[in-house]
Structure formats: structure tokens, C-alpha cells
Write a structure and sequence with these properties.
Elements lengths: L2 H21 L6 E6 L5 H9 L3 E7 L2 H11 L3 E4 L8 H10 L5 E6 L4 H8 L5 E4 L3 H13 L4 E2 L1 H4 L3
Parallel strand pairs: 1-2, 1-3, 3-4, 4-5, 5-6
Length: about 160
């Protein structure tokens, strides 16, 4: 299956999830806060996740992630690891210590198992590598919302 067909399949899953949410009469969509310092990445993620999820903000450093998450109280935080001021792992630790109830899903270029373990040790429930985000991010968010851990399958086979 090529990248184009994977994108189409993923988009179809998002639309199906959105339709089910509408049918159930749920007026409040799942809220997501994005944290990534790479130009264009938050916009790409937002275009993938809407209309099934409501993107309530986007930040580019770990300190802003903490500030916005505590203020907006999103259902899910999707964060990169490598960011200025505080990295995503440090921000996740501080969020959990502060009592933040948001589910955390890491979206990273790092495929080293040590990064995966470090992220999950913060209480995060998801770890998706960026090259697989179009096919795995929605599923990772769904799993996190259900309280289950999701790791990109290509990584979980190495751990």
C-alpha cells in the first residue's frame, strides 16, 4: 500500500470516527493540544486530525506546552520530544506532577528504544514515529483515550 492510499485510508477512518461522534449526539469533540517546534508539522497534524478531533492549540516549546495544557485542559496532548526550553519528556513529567489529566502521545523522529522507554515512563500512552504519523497517529490517540498503550509497530518489534 503506497503513501497516498495510506493517507486516504487514514482520512476515511477519521471521517468515520467523526460521523460516529455526530450520530452519538456528542457535541463536545475530543480536544487535542499540539507541541512541535518544526515549521509546518503542527499544521500537517491538524489537517490529519480534523474533523474528528478539535485542535485547541499549538505550541513550539515545552514550557508553553505546560502553560497551555494547564490552562486549556485538553483531552490529549500530542508532543514532540526535541523542543526548546523544555523537551517533551521534561514537559510530560511536569504535567503529570501538576495533576494534568490529559493523555499524552509522543510524536517523534527518534526510533531508539531508550527514547520510547523514557517517554512511556512519564505516563504517556503513545509513541508514534513521524514517518508513520499519517497511518498511526489517529489510532494512537484512540488507544490513549481508551487507556491503552500504543507504540508504532515497527518500534515495538525492536523493544
Amino acid at each position: 500500500m503506497g503513501p497516498r492510499s495510506e493517507w486516504t485510508r487514514n482520512r476515511s477512518q477519521v471521517l468515520l470516527l467523526w460521523a460516529r461522534t455526530q450520530q452519538a449526539g456528542q457535541l463536545n469533540r475530543i480536544t487535542v493540544l499540539l507541541a512541535d517546534d518544526h515549521p509546518g508539522v503542527p499544521h500537517l497534524i491538524e489537517s490529519m486530525l480534523e474533523p474528528a478531533f478539535e485542535i485547541i492549540g499549538s505550541v513550539s516549546n515545552g514550557q508553553s506546552l505546560i502553560d497551555m495544557a494547564m490552562k486549556l485542559k485538553p483531552d490529549v496532548v500530542v508532543t514532540d520530544i526535541s523542543m526548546p526550553i523544555l523537551n517533551g519528556i521534561e514537559a510530560a513529567v511536569q504535567l503529570k506532577k501538576s495533576g494534568c489529566a490529559s493523555k499524552i502521545v509522543f510524536l517523534s523522529i527518534h526510533s531508539d528504544p531508550d527514547f520510547v522507554r523514557a517517554c512511556l515512563s512519564t505516563g504517556a500512552l503513545g509513541y508514534v514515529i513521524k514517518p508513520r504519523m499519517t497511518t498511526e497517529l489517529v489510532h494512537a490517540i484512540q488507544e490513549a483515550l481508551a487507556g491503552r498503550i500504543f507504540i508504532s509497530p515497527s518500534l515495538s518489534q525492536r523493544n
